[in-house]
Amino acid sequence: MSPAAAVGQSISVEELERDPYPAYARLREEEPVSWVESVGLWLVTRWDDVQHVVKTREVFTAETEPSTLNRTFGKNLLGSEGPYHDRVRAIISPWFRMRAIGHFPADVIAPIANELVDGFAARGEVELASEFAEPLSVRVLRRAMGLEGIDDDTLRRWFQELALGAANFEGDPEKQAVADAASADVNETIAPILERLRDEPNDTLLSSMLHERVDGEGLTLAEIQANLKVMIVGGLQAVGDLISISMWALLAHPEQADRVRADASLVDPAVEEAARWYSPVGTSTRQTTRETELAGTALPAGALIAAVLSSANRDSRHWEDPDRFDLDTHRRPHLAFAGGAHVCVGALLGRFEARTAMHVLLERLPRLRLDPDRPAGFEGWEFRSPTHLHLLFDPPPERYRMATTTEELTPDYMERLARVQPDPAALPEDLDLFYEDTARRGIRLNKAGHSLKHQEQRELFARDEEAWMDQFGLTDEERALVRGRDWIGLWRAGMSIYVMTKLSGVTKTPLVEIGKQMRESG
Phi/psi at 200 (nearest 5 deg)? Predict the structure, then answer.
């Protein structure tokens, strides 16, 4: 231990959980490598030292002993090092590259995000963490991993119980029993999925892990199971937290939020700056393989090290004015997704989710802002998570709200929407029939457009286009949109045709023309 460890000895777990950044600032200035008794770790807090730890594998290994990750999941990407780690990563990583998942923002993430926003858009307020960020991360994870048919609650339970074991540093047997039962449940549940994927591969991560080969070698069943559990834990908490933190950080700076609203190209740097400024993943754990010295501090062999990523991202030796959230000043690589050989393999997908979420929320929710009466709450230092994030926005006038199911086409619904009066000369004689027919058409097209996010529907379309259209009862005009592969026009027309016809008074314009008008108007 360092002869001078006054700062580290004074830091409590409660202080770190409440807000670790003041403690990190003291450590960076006075004890950049410090033994913190309360957490049983050496904390490394300066940028250069953190970089050295995460990049020097021969001295600071990720294959720690004991390893809560390996004990709970089985030997995995995060808890391994050397040739084993490199082989597993080489097999898994191709699925996470742009070529494989570049379509996710438009085809997977945005439809789920819009569906979630539909659930609260009329209210004028939302608790973003529980109503949007967490369910978005759950549903994208299910689609990405290939866990279709496994409900949200099961995925949440797996995450909570597996995470209990991953954080069980004290070796509590009761906690471990819960985690071990969840681990066994995951193995049992995915067994039939893997069996099906052997003969019917698809575009999911599970399929890729099953079939990908590097130098003729693939993953064993145990390796697939272990690394899927890593993805479940990392893909839910860290991504959901990044979505919430990005929105909170941006909206806490209204002038910069206005810039992003006016220029969508600023969404990407906004997410990157939020990840740097308030990193969702705070540390990366290593263990010394031999005696060494770091920043003038002697470390014994076997010392457990926490490379504090969130502190390095606030180090003034590397960043200009690092405690300030700034879209322009800090456009350089950060460590929010770790670094070196263990840089987060799912970083691109996490970025896609946070960026798409920000686009959808800013586009869909006018004057989106923090709720001043219910300030955001955060906790944690190894993982910094929102306890709640209440936002306000201006809800759309009720009369403009589209029905999303045929059950909503009630007389009261029709009467309220009838108050929006178009050009009387353009109205059909049977107004009630017109309202119902137009709304049903919107619902029909919406269902058709959204169906293509499902693998089996895409396969049916590729195999028999007419049969795919028949199941929705599409008209000749609607089929023309499909044959023209105008998916955006189809989706937008389906979502908005009722409102378009009511507001414009154009009741006899062909559907194709309405779709064209909508696209031209943006």
Answer: -130, 70
- Name residue 35's beta-bridge partners: 42
Number of residues that make up the chain: 522
Question: Quick check: 338 and 78 in contact, CB under 8 A?
Answer: no
Give per-residue pLDDT as tens, 366-390.
999 999 999 999 999 988 999 999 9
Map residue 232 onto helix, strand or coil: helix
Q: Does residue 424 have a cis bond before it (omega within 30 degrees)?
A: no
How far apart are the C-alpha atoms of 6 and 459, rounded to whole Å?
Answer: 64
Three-state secondary structure call for residue 129 = helix
Nearest to 274 by CA among 262, 260, 290, 291: 260
pLDDT in tens, 277-322: 999 999 999 999 999 999 999 999 999 999 999 999 999 999 999 9
Is 32:295 a contact under the CB 8 Å cutoff? yes
In this structure, is the dihedral angle defined by the CA atoms of residues 201, 203, 205 and 208, taken in order, positive or negative? positive
Asked if 229 contacts 76 with a C-beta cutoff of 8 angstroms, the reply is yes
Is the sign of the CA dihedral 127, 130, 132, 134 positive or negative?
positive
Tens of pLDDT, residues 204-213: 999 999 999 9
Token look-up 């369910």 returns: 135
377 Cβ neighbours under 8 A, 6+ residues apart: 386, 387, 388, 389
